[in-house]
Write a structure and sequence with these properties.
Layout (H helix, E strand, L loop, with lengths): L2 H10 L5 E4 L2 E4 L1 H13 L2 E3 L8 E3 L14 E2 L5 E2 L4 E2 L4 E2 L4 E2 L4 E2 L4 E2 L4 E2 L4 E2 L4 E2 L4 E2 L12 E2 L4 E2 L4 E2 L4 E2 L4 E2 L4 E2 L4 E4 L4 E5 L7 E9 L3 H5 L3 E10 L6 H9 L1
Parallel strand pairs: 5-8, 6-9, 7-10, 8-11, 9-12, 10-13, 11-14, 12-15, 13-16, 14-17, 15-18, 16-19, 17-20, 18-21, 20-24, 22-25
Antiparallel strand pairs: 1-2, 3-4, 22-23, 24-25
Helix pairs in contact: 1-2
């Protein structure tokens, strides 16, 4: 199948850059390869019309949204790139950017200065607060992208990169960084989840710190930032109220 047809299917939401397999997500290698092929096939051109002055690949223009799609793309510098899926009921506040291969499901909010990177998967009723950075994982093609499952809340300025999985209903406090190199600590169950561990369902994650391990660092009182699970939500709890309580 040609890269052009695959990009059409990505925009329609009939295929995705990653698919759920039980409790994990698996990258769709053919989709990611098609996106890379599209980059190779494209030539840099100067866009016209409302995009006058911008230069990008001629085959990957920003999407033009229509009212019957049910998406609110609020004026002020936001852009949805070719090959990205944005479902009915999604709201994008300016400026926000949704890159190629990304998937944003129904009812989600992408707030100002937020990025949804290439191939990132965002579930239903997810709130990405102002300044949130959801990293894109296009290469290597076999690596799963960042996935934020249904009903999650991601606080302002948080960074989620390198294929991290945030499971359903989790709450990420403002300023949390989740990556493959940062260990996650679970204070509720009193255990170390490890570097790059999936964030469990309904976990409330706040910014924390741990002491530097070498002697010189200890003598200087240095510490390294790390995410800490401070509590778990119950099924009916409100994400913002749970976060407010956890941060007190």
């Amino acid at each position: 199948m040609s890269w052009n047809k695959i990009l059409d299917q990505l925009e329609a939401g009939t295929i995705r850059a990653a698919d759920r397999d039980g409790d994990t997500w698996i990258a769709n290698v053919k989709v990611k390869e098609a996106i890379l092929d599209a980059f190779k096939a494209g030539k840099n051109v100067s866009y016209g019309g409302i995009y006058e002055g911008f230069v990008d690949k001629d085959n990957l223009p920003p999407r033009i949204m229509h009212p019957d799609e049910g998406v609110r793309l609020v004026p002020g510098g936001s852009s949805i790139r070719r090959g990205a899926y944005v479902a009915e009921g999604v709201i994008l506040m300016p400026p926000a950017y949704v890159n190629i291969g990304a998937y944003i499901d129904e009812g989600s909010m992408v707030d100002s200065h937020a990025l949804v990177g290439s191939c990132a998967q965002i579930g239903r009723n997810v709130h990405l607060s102002a300044g949130v950075q959801i990293g894109g994982v296009l290469e290597p093609v076999g690596l799963s992208p960042v996935v934020v499952e249904d009903d999650c809340f991601v606080g302002a300025g948080s960074v989620i990169v390198e294929g991290i999985l945030v499971k359903r209903g989790a709450v990420i406090a403002p300023g949390v960084t989740l990556s493959k190199s940062v260990p996650v600590y679970d204070c509720v169950h009193e255990k170390l989840l490890g570097k790059g561990a999936p964030i469990p369902e309904r976990a409330v994650v706040v910014p924390g710190s741990r002491p530097v391990s070498n002697e010189w660092g200890k003598s200087q009182g240095l510490s390294i930032s790390c995410p800490i699970i401070i509590k778990y939500r119950d099924e009916g709890s409100n994400a913002s109220l749970e976060l407010e309580e956890a941060l007190r």
